[in-house]
Amino acid sequence: MLFLQGSEVIFKVALSLLGSHKPLILQHENLETIVDFIKNTLPNLGLVQMEKTINQVFEMDIAKQLQAYEVEYHVLQDELIDSSLNDNQRMDKLEKANTSLRKQNFDLLEELQVANGKIQNLEATVELLLNNECKLKQSILTLELERKALLQTVEDLRTQTGSPGGKHLLTRQDCLDAN
Prior knowledge:
mainly alpha; single chain
């Protein structure tokens, strides 16, 4: 087991044994009697208890617990450092933090104003493009109607000239004479 999981297994076995015997350990009043209990009782474990302990060791993942304890340790260290500072130092530290936050707030406000300006410009551009699109659609519709009318006029002129296939077209002079 030591070769499989490394030295971490020693801590896992210790935690498993202490956890499974916690009620018995808590009955003792001082460290000496606890140490005697651990020396005398734990080595005399039965086979079932040893198998249970080994299964617990294989299932145990102490990395997450250790990481949580590490975070808690750092938080406590920061609190201890903060509490050891005198009031003036704490006030200076808070004023610096406040100044820094105000600067960040001001910078973010400027970025927000720039972004709002860009948004307004883009909205105006979109509105202008939509208006242009409507005008172009209207122009297309008008041109299509004009094209239909011109095609109809051409067809009418062909029928008036008597050439249904359009093989004989009027000359310019004929058109001027017709008017």
